[in-house]
């Protein structure tokens, strides 16, 4: 995990556990400016990060680390605080208009958001928060100021990085602004610890943002293994969702935006049906999710593309669904298709595998960690629809492939439980607290 954690391992176990209890924070201020943990993933800017924050906070609370999540109020009349679970409190901060504020306009509201965070803190005894954990660069800026003002360590998780996204842009997608690049660079310098989802993300922090390698810790996100599991199998899930039992069902689930490349799946299906017209009667392509990000400019774009490619008759557009029903969509699918241009981890890939479904994904970001190529799914270099069509043909020709790979996928996903992620995150908090104290001592020494 972090270098601190590996050093800890060389001490006697009792000393290590005593030290951990001494240094571990009791209460963490978690910041999620642009997306509320109470929002449904797959809508607007809500996605894997929402799931990550909710699950991590609940598991941290279970190991006696209280979490208060600060997020922007996006509707009038919301309760100022909502208990998400025992030991997890969501605080709604008024910053900017409730509705219709694009993520790109949020930097202008960071001052107001910071004011709300400071106001909440002012109502407590000194030392109420032991550590700040910010998610995404917008929160990082607030976290930087809050941690400095409160004299506590800052732990930051990027989730995605402007320089990495700009290096892997989809056609017609707009690059991230320079202000974000500058903001991220400042946060990397200011944080006591940076949490990366994968080794690759850790390397990118060092390479693109000159992060100090000693400050970067790799913690794989987890998956809710109680919710995402094979359960009663593919046939039952298809029956519940009203889907044909013998169809080839390649599923897209996620936000509809160029970055996630749902168009690649539609183009691949068009290629497949050109070569194998007889498959048309037994293929169904569900697209489950809502427009987001730069996809909001053309919310009907994907429907129009399906019509233009001549595959509208086999594609089913479905609005975002709750986590329980999403698990059923995963179980029902022959294969989950993730042709993303950039993906810091690809939580959806682990969720689908945990539900017993193989994944066909672009070989980008954290997806090679999430998917074992040839074992639990297939990784494709690049975004050529013909390459994806080739893999889909394998699933069409061998119906048993979904079942055999799905079993391996469910086994693989079991190592990604949230309890493991929470314990590793707590160790990062401990390391951040130690290095922060050392820095304060040397500053005053």
From TrEMBL:
> What Enzyme Commission number(s) does the record list for this chain?
2.4.1.250
- UniProt: UDP-N-acetyl-alpha-D-glucosamine binding residues: 40-41, 48, 255, 260, 321, 343, 351
**Which reaction is recorded as catalysed by this protein?**
1D-myo-inositol 3-phosphate + UDP-N-acetyl-alpha-D-glucosamine = 1D-myo-inositol 2-acetamido-2-deoxy-alpha-D-glucopyranoside 3-phosphate + UDP + H(+)
Q: Which residues form the signal peptide?
A: none
Cited NCBIfam families: mycothiol_MshA
Q: Where are the transmembrane segments?
A: none
- Give the matching Pfam families: Glyco_trans_4_4 (PF13579), Glycos_transf_1 (PF00534)
Which residues are involved in binding 1D-myo-inositol 3-phosphate? 34, 45-50, 103, 136, 160, 180
Keywords (alphabetical) are: Glycosyltransferase, Magnesium, Metal-binding, Transferase
What's the protein here called? D-inositol-3-phosphate glycosyltransferase
Show the GO MF annotations: acetylglucosaminyltransferase activity; D-inositol-3-phosphate glycosyltransferase activity; magnesium ion binding
